[in-house]
Structure formats: C-alpha cells, structure tokens
Design brief:
With about 160 residues, the chain is α/β, with parallel strands linked by helices. It contains five helices and five strands.
C-alpha cells in the first residue's frame, strides 16, 4: 500500500481515486442536468443556402430560437434561407448576399390566397423596414431574385458579424 502524507491509515490510492472519479461523475451529471450550459457555444454558419420549403424553414427557425442558437450568414442565402433574419442571434457579413423572390411551389405560381398566405409567412421573419419592402416589392419577383448585399442589410439594422 502506498502511503500518502496527511491521510488517515487505511485509505488506499485506489480508494482515493474512486472518490475523485465519483466526484467528477457528479459534476458531469450536474452539467448535463443544467442543459449542458458549460459547453462552448456553437455558431451555425450559413454560406451557400438556396432555400427550400417555407414551412420546414419556419420549423427550423422556431427550434433555433428556442435554443438561442447563433447564426452567421456569410455567403449566398436565397429564398427561404432569408428567414434566418427572424432570429435575435443572427448576424450578416458585409459580403453576404441575400436573394428575395415570390413564394412559389417549384416553378409554379401559387393561387392568390396561397400567395398571400405564404408571403405573410415569409415576411413575418423579417425586421422592419425589410418586411414592408418585401410585402410591397420583393414578393412580386417571379424568376430570379432581388439581391441585397450584407452592407445594405447592416445599414438597415441587421447586426454585423464580429470579424
């Protein structure tokens, strides 16, 4: 048995290691129970996102909002991707390029009532004055995109990413 100065007789090095291991496991359990708040924050980096279904993106954004996930838009972000602007933790770089167009199903135009519904769904993810511009002009673009650079979005109040 190895003697450790200052310890009462009868405790082995293995017993002491066991107590230390149990303490470490308890600390890890407490971190896990607190929602893992002790981890390093991850940033979702958006670079070349060409959009997708509005309903799916809306669900993803709701999840990201609940978790407080940070989103950094660095490159091209088109169509439904622009809905990331709804998140309080989203920033854009100066070289970001966001593309806006009419809601559509594939290459098909929507019926008037569907067009209105999906336009409002997209617009609710934009801060003012982008929301007003989209409802007045951006949603009318059929084929192609209205392109807005990060520098302009930053001028409109979208947070700039720290460099």
């Amino acid at each position: 048995m190895t003697k450790i100065p200052g310890l009462r007789r009868g405790y082995s090095v293995f017993q002491i290691r066991g107590v230390v291991l149990i303490c470490l496991l308890l600390i890890l359990a407490l971190i896990a129970a607190s929602g893992g708040q002790a981890h390093v924050e991850q940033i979702l980096i958006v670079q070349n996102d060409h959009g997708g279904l509005i309903s799916e993106r809306s669900d993803e954004i709701a999840h990201l909002e609940r978790t407080g996930q940070r989103v950094q838009i660095e490159g091209e972000c088109l169509s439904a991707c622009t809905m990331y602007l709804a998140l309080r933790n989203t920033c854009v770089t100066q070289n970001t390029r966001l593309g806006f167009h009419a809601p559509q199903q594939g290459q098909q135009r929507l019926a008037a009532s569907d067009f209105e519904y999906w336009s409002r769904e997209v617009a609710r993810h934009y801060p003012e004055p982008l929301k007003t511009w989209y409802m007045r002009e951006g949603r009318l673009r059929q084929g192609g995109y209205y392109s807005i650079r990060g520098t302009e979005l930053i001028r409109l109040g979208i947070p700039a990413c720290a460099t």
